[in-house]
Amino acid sequence: MLVGLGLLVVLLVMALVLPLFWRVSPTAVDLSHALAPPSPAHPMGTDGNGRDVLARFNAGARVSLLIGLTVAVVGAIIGGTIGIIGGIRGGAVDAVLMRGMDAILAFPPLVLAMAVTVGLGPGAATATWGIVLISIPWYARIVRSEVLRIRSQQFVYAAVTMGASPVRVVRRHILPHLVPTVLTQAAGVFSYGILAMAGLGFLGLGVQVPTADWGSMITEGLEYALGGQWWISTFPGLGVLAVTAAAAIIADNGREAFSRPGERAGG
């Protein structure tokens, strides 16, 4: 857990604090210093247009972290609401909602995100909505499962017997018990959101120029990689690797920490 949090803190510092000291525009073109290797003047080198890779890395980090957070939060709100409604209402309502989630899950996630982005037009906003769409069933399924489990507990039966309304039961007795599950799922979705946006950016469907994005930076750097200019694509690639690994570590540790004693004992 501490390793994952440490990696995220480092990336957040680079994205939010370092630009206060490294005042270089990520879009400033200087062809006289194109393809310069890492040096004190350019710690991560420059790209084919002479743009500072460190400045672009920081800008890409801000974009990627914001998109990952947006996907995790919006997906949790929409998917969590669907899961709660399905788990509480049951019957035909639950069946219809879950069949809708199954329809989304029938498509490979990245392919569906690509289809949404192409249909609405390439860009950061449309790509984000495409990734949000594929995250909704992940939340809905796991929240519904937890709601069904919590509904079977004696304290819920006691609240219903005492005349508590469905809204009160959800607000006072179910939602608090869903928080650990949703937070753990959100860490994984946050990681996937950043990875998926990098993939869409690699294909030219995500963040558009001149805005910096890790995926597009990797794409731009590939044409120079065979010529020895490894730094253009390596540093954003390491950024994607670091943030996804950090979120995965947090998600795994959170799942273990929040697991029920009986489940943990049973393996």
From TrEMBL:
> PROSITE patterns in the record, alphabetically?
ABC_TM1
Predominantly, its location class is membrane
Give the residue spans that cross the bilayer.
63-88, 100-120, 126-143, 189-210, 230-251
- The ABC transmembrane type-1 domain sits at 61-251
Record keyword Coiled coil present: no
A GO BP entry is:
transmembrane transport
Q: How does it sit in the membrane?
A: Multi-pass membrane protein
- Which keywords fit this entry according to its UniProt record? Cell membrane, Membrane, Transmembrane, Transmembrane helix, Transport
Q: Where in the cell is it found?
A: Cell membrane
- Which Gene3D superfamilies does the entry mention? MetI-like
GO cellular component entries: plasma membrane
Source organism's superkingdom?
Bacteria
State the family named in the UniProt similarity comment for this chain. Answer: Belongs to the binding-protein-dependent transport system permease family.
Q: What is this protein called?
A: Peptide/nickel transport system permease protein
Q: Which organism is it from?
A: Amycolatopsis sulphurea
